[in-house]
Amino acid sequence: MEKRKKKMKFEPFPILKTERLYLRKIKESDSDVILFLRSNKTVNKFIERPENKRTKNKNDALKFIKEITAAIEKNKSISWGITLKDNPQIIGTICLWNFSKDKKTAEVGYDLNPKFQQKGIMNEALKNVINFGFNLLKLDKIEAFTHKNNISSIRLLEKNKFEFIKDKKDEYNSDNIIFELKNSTKNTV
Question: Against a cut of 0.70, is the pTM above it?
Fold first, then answer.
């Protein structure tokens, strides 16, 4: 008997809420913030993007928003804009993407405006995305690729019980290290 591929649906778009945050759909009106997040030197200090994926101007930001919107519509990935509950302006993003063919593994990615770092915001957002991935998408595992010198990101992952996988390498960036978090609710009787 052939196993059927797991079907994911991201419409209607799942808005996630935490104590302080809303994780909402990214819209074209967010293009100025997306341009900042994808081009600011501090935010991107540890990120290497190929030339064709770099965001250098507002048109590039709009193109990126259209790409992630299309990926959501095709159920290939899901990206949220992170906002404070009392302010609809995006301060960061978080996504689940790079799903395995069997839809059991996904990669998490995130960025945050430096003004809002070191306040537990990304920790709060990540916990909710992990919950969404494991409890709604029924993922077995979430991976995270981060630069070996990005201490803040490493601490965030370790705080959320991601484990460093020393034998796995990022084929596109030798400076990245890989962490994974297994779904502990999957193996319980």
Answer: yes
| pLDDT tens track for 109-136 | 999 999 999 999 999 999 999 999 999 9
Q: What Å distances lie between residue 52 and 49, 63, 90, 92, 163, CA to CA?
A: 8, 11, 24, 22, 32
End-to-end CA distance of the chain, in Å?
25
* Strand residue runs (E) in the chain: 16-17, 21-24, 78-84, 87-97, 105-112, 141-147, 163-164, 176-182
Residue 145 corresponds to which amino acid?
A: F
**Going edge to edge, which strands form the sheet with 163-164?**
16-17, 21-24, 78-84, 87-97, 105-112, 141-147, 176-182, 163-164
